[in-house]
Specification:
4 helices; Aminopeptidase; binds coenzyme A; 7 strands; seven-stranded mixed sheet
């Protein structure tokens, strides 16, 4: 399996040739987030949303992030890593890279209260729960989380080059 340190893995903006693979991986990682074709097209266009992916030499998407960028804040709309590549630092690295690219002062996100792994991941990265929303867009209770970005990288950068 290619590791994170593999030179064949690239961090790029989502391209049209990846769109079908992206939809499948997004649905597999986040089955409750049912987006329309139009929304996926917006993820691709880069006007409202910015979508970045890690791809390997075979153009397989390993990890993705969808962001909405504001003037000095950004919202993480979704983030995911395919199962066999989880816990290798991909999602943390993506957050670091996005913090470097967009330089937000604050990062926000909403996560279902039952998604313990994601809450653990975000907390580990430095996000804090600032509010709870009953019945989010997906019909579940969710936490609103925030991280103020003082440095461009997290304290836990997994020593990734
Ligand atoms: C949450 C998710 C994106 C994390 O992706 P990842 O690439 O595995 O994350 P990383 O490897 O960068 O993990 C960093 C930290 O998150 C935490 N973490 C990741 N997976 C974990 C698990 N299975 N159990 C507990 N903590 C976990 C750990 O603290 C880890 O740090 P460590 O490696 O030093 O222990 C991934 O589990 C996923 O795709 N889940 C399904 C989609 C989802 O729920 N997305 C979030 C809601 S929008």
């Amino acid at each position: 399996m290619a590791s994170f340190h593999s030179t064949n893995i690239r961090f790029i903006e989502l391209q049209e040739k990846h769109l079908n693979k992206f939809k499948k991986i997004h649905a597999a990682c986040l089955p409750s987030a049912k987006y329309s074709e139009e929304t996926y097209m917006q993820f691709l266009k880069g006007e409202v949303f910015r979508t970045h992916v890690f791809v390997n030499a075979e153009e397989q998407i390993l990890s993705f992030i969808v962001l909405m960028i504001g003037i000095d804040a950004c919202e993480i709309i979704s983030i995911g890593t395919i199962k066999q590549y989880r816990n290798q630092g991909f999602a943390s690295k993506m957050l670091n890279m996005c913090a470097e690219i967009y330089k937000p002062r604050d990062m926000f996100l909403e996560v279902e209260t039952t998604n313990k792994i994601a809450i653990n991941f975000y907390t580990d990265y430095g996000f804090e729960i600032i509010n709870m929303r009953k019945k989010s867009n997906w019909g579940e209770n969710s936490f609103l989380m925030k991280k103020s970005v003082e440095n461009t990288t997290s304290e836990k950068d997994h020593n990734i080059q």
